[in-house]
Amino acid sequence: MINIDxxxxxxxxVLGLAKSGVSAASLLHKLxxxxxxxxxxPLHENPEAQGLLEExxxxxxxxxxxxxxxxxxQFIVKxxxxxxxxxxxQGAIKRGITVLTEVELAYQISEAPLIAITGTNGxxxxxxxxxxxxxxxxxxxxxxxxxxxxxxxxxxxxxNDHTIVIELSSFQLMGTEKFRPxxxxxxxxxxxxxxxxxxxxxxxxxxxKITANQTEDDWFIYNADxxxxxxxxxxxxxRTFPFSTRTKLESGAYIENDWIYFKDEAIIKIEEVxxxxxxxxxxxxxxxxxxGVSNTAIKNVLSSxxxxxxxxxxVKELNGRMFYNDSxxxxxxxxxxxxxxxxxxxxxxxxxxxxxxxxxDLIPNLEYVKTxxxxxxxxxxMEEMAKQAGIENIHRVDNVEKAVPKAYELSAEGDVILLSxxxxxxxxxxxxxxxGDIFIDAVHKLK
Length: 447
Prior knowledge:
Elements: E1 11-15, H1 18-30, E2 34-39, H2 47-54, E3 58-61, E4 75-78, H3 87-94, E5 98-100, H4 102-109, E6 114-118, H5 123-136, E7 141-145, H6 151-157, E8 163-167, H7 170-174, E9 183-186, H8 194-197, H9 200-208, E10 219-223, H10 227-235, E11 239-244, E12 253-256, E13 259-262, E14 265-269, H11 278-290, H12 295-302, E15 313-318, E16 321-325, H13 332-339, E17 346-350, E18 369-374, H14 379-388, E19 393-396, H15 400-410, E20 416-419, H16 432-445
Parallel strand pairs: 1-2, 1-4, 2-3, 4-5, 6-8, 6-9, 7-8, 9-10, 10-11, 11-12, 16-20, 17-18, 17-20, 18-19
Antiparallel strand pairs: 12-13, 13-14, 15-16
Binding site for ATP: 119-125
Keywords: ATP-binding, Cell cycle, Cell division, Cell shape, Cell wall biogenesis/degradation, Cytoplasm, Ligase, Nucleotide-binding, Peptidoglycan synthesis
Catalytic activity: UDP-N-acetyl-alpha-D-muramoyl-L-alanine + D-glutamate + ATP = UDP-N-acetyl-alpha-D-muramoyl-L-alanyl-D-glutamate + ADP + phosphate + H(+)
């Protein structure tokens, strides 16, 4: 870790705890800052705050007193989930106080170069693929961010022999100032998180911060099939490297004649790749090759990687049926991506929390869907959409647990049975992980 002086003898407010806040507060304390932690959860219910108190860090719990801004803070490190409308954050901005997220701290102290990945969909899977490729080639990767360990914690342990592979959300990127990865990856840009960012442009601007400080010594990998990503690429100072699932590229990663190519070099046959979301695969291959990973290591990973849990995760084959858990698909775009991954008959399990939207945008992606099993609040809307798509086999059940045996009953040998709800889980389940685990358990109970 680089023992920087940026925060020494400076007053820093850490707003909101959870794992990132605890790590940030401890790190800033080590760096010689005068740290105050403020969290909404009362102290007697807050073991994280109690632990920081034992380290000698000032802790204020139970509310966010606006009077804290009168204490002369020079920096605020906020939990990414806290919106910028928070009165403390608004007050800090008006006073010219720098507002950061802990990934900025991670970058500032890291001896290791960073490979950073963002996008609306596919971040976790792509991050994992890159990590596994580097690991297979003995490049000493560490994984951080939204996946794995908090970035500022990982950065404290990293040396210049390591490489940190980090998944980043728009919430995290908004709070960066000097953050500069050696390799940045922008997978895709769709409309999302408008409850936080309010406008599509603001959301895309947050995502673009992944490359804002890159120079000609760095690489920016982007999706050439998306105009929004191309626009970011046109504005970066980094060397650009495109990937495309549709078009052969003179200098990029692409698919041709059932092979994956890096520039003009054939890497692996499509039929040998287990995980079939090629947008993620091409991005991962690009990052790995630019980092010097061997073709052998890349092929070994792609021929054995079945996906991340709850993200188009292969669960089991039973009597010729392939079961996939894509419970992480909490929006329409994610389900579209999942459906694009298959070219055999699909029995789709879908439904969940009703946020007021309809699902007609799924219709162009239902070419291979022969049956839909619906559940949850949006079941009627899903069924109406399926009827308009011309799907005749539509069945409603009470929940995911009952959807699995029904889907199996309606399936045939060679079918894919896919849980990809296109909805959040909160109408019936606490998290999408719980929903996915119930699906997995139900699959394993089948005879």
